[in-house]
Structure formats: structure tokens, C-alpha cells
Amino acid sequence: MGKIKLFIAKLLGINPEMQVKSLDNNDHNELIAAKDAEINSLKNDLFQYKQIIEVIPVNVMFANLDGQITYVNERSTQTLKAVEKLLPVSINKVKGSNYDIFHS
What we know:
By secondary structure, the protein is mainly alpha-helical. The chain has helices spanning about 5-10, 25-55, 75-80; strands spanning about 60-65, 70. Strands 1-2 form a two-stranded antiparallel ribbon.
């Protein structure tokens, strides 16, 4: 190995004698299958959590870091209908509004 390559390897903290294992198609397919299974499991979990939040008998709203309401569950919608006259926006516009609408 040339002196320049050795210098660069040491500079980067890489063992210049390290051998990199080449992956064949079977290895790639196994990795892809494992990641697909992991993604599908996460999708199923998220679906179940969404279903739970939708039917839980508690008011639930989500907002992003900018304060924009991104989710309102059914229970929150029912609760807000009872006080809709007091809100500065209609119930249909709560999602997408800033949560400061409840502070005005």
C-alpha cells in the first residue's frame, strides 16, 4: 500500500489492512427481507395505535412544533361541538389551526 493511502487511512482512523466482505445476492435479499418485515411490523403497530387513539374516551389532539393542530380525535370533535359557538373557528377548521385559538 502506498504511503499516501496509508497516511489517509490513518488520518481517517481506518485500519488499512481491513478486508471488506463482499455481499452476494442472497445476503442482499436477506437484508431486504428483514427490513421489509421490520417496516411491516412498525406499520401494523402504528395502525393499532391510531385505532386506539381514535376510540379512546379522552380528548386527544396533536400539534407540530409550530403549534399547528395536525390531529383531532372523535372525542375531541364531540367535546368541541358543545362549545363551538365560543371558538374563533368552526370545528372543521380546528385541524390546521394554531393551538393558540384556545387561548384567545
